[in-house]
Specification:
Blueprint (H helix, E strand, L loop, with lengths): L7 H29 L4 H6 L3 H19 L1 H16 L4 H7 L1
Helix pairs in contact: 1-3, 1-4, 3-4
Length: 97
């Protein structure tokens, strides 16, 4: 993106890569829950996975937005990064109890 001065198409492509990583994470969590059982500690810890679903939603909004307003999409990508920088203690809470 930097070499293209944040042109719309590279910013949208970057968002598509981020979206694919998010989808891969969602698939991984679902497979793990399926293998461990819906009543397992892991399933209870992950719960509804608000952070994961919110991230996917933001990416879905940011990709088409990049075609008109690339700077807004970059801010949205940064917001997702900030969401994931905040420590997620779901698994720790379930395993410690």
């Amino acid at each position: 993106m930097g070499e293209n001065n944040f042109a719309p198409v590279p910013v949208a492509c970057y968002g598509a890569v981020l979206l694919m990583a998010g989808v891969a994470y969602a698939i991984l969590t679902q497979v793990l829950i399926h293998n461990h059982g819906k009543d397992s500690a892991l399933a209870k810890a992950i719960g509804k996975d608000a952070k994961g679903n919110l991230s996917l939603g933001i990416y879905l909004v940011a990709i088409p937005t990049a075609l008109a307003f690339p700077a807004v999409s970059c801010v949205l990508y940064f917001v997702v990064a900030l969401i994931w920088l905040y420590p997620d203690k779901r698994i720790e809470r379930v395993l410690v109890d």
